[in-house]
User: What shape does this take?
Amino acid sequence: MNTKKINSIKSLSHLYTVIMGVALSSAVINYIDPKIGMDSVNFASTCLFLAFIFTLFPFYHGALRHLDDAYIENDSDHIKDGALIFDFFLLFIHGIVFIALSLLLSKPAQFTWILLFVLSIDVVWAIFAHFGSSSHEGKAEWKWGVINAIAAAIIFITIKYFDIGYMEIADAKFSEAISLTIAIAACFRTLADYIFCYKFYFPSDTS
Assistant: This one.
C-alpha cells in the first residue's frame, strides 16, 4: 500500500480517536457532577456508566483493529471502491452516538433506546465490513454482527419486558432494575466479543 493511503487511514483513525475521547470525557463528567461531587453518584447511573465503558472500549478497539487489518496489514486489492469512506462514515456515526450515550447516564430509558440504536448500526456495519472491506483472513466482522445482533435482541426484549418508553421513569427502583439489566447485558456482550475475537484483538507475532 502506498504511503499516502496509509496516512489517510491514520488520519481517519485519529479523528475517530478524538470523537471517542470526547465521549469518554463527557461520560465521566456526567457521571460525577463537579458541583455536587460523589453525592451525585447513584446505583442507576453507575450501572449505565459501566454499560457505557463496557461498550465503548471494544467498539473503539475493534474499529481501529479493523482499519489496520483491512487496509494496512493485509492485501487490500480485493476491497471494494469507496469501502473506506463508507467504513468511516458509519464509524463516525458510532462516535456521535457514543457522545449522546455519555449525556444520558441519568436517563435509563433513553440510554437503553440509544444503546439499541448503536448496536443496530454496528450490525449493519459488520455486514458491510465482512463483504466489502474485511481482509481475506478477517473473521471478526461477521462475529461482531452476530454478537451485536444477539445483544440488540436482548435489549429489545428488555425494552418490551419493562415496557420502556422514551419518557423517563419516575420510580427509582424500576430505573435501577433497568440499568442493572443493561449493565449485565453490556458486560456479557463485551466478554463474548473478546472471547470469540481474541486473536483478532490481540494478534500474535506469527499471525
Q: What stands out?
A: The helical segments are 3-31, 43-73, 83-102, 108-132, 140-162, 172-196, 198-201. The radius of gyration is 18 Å.
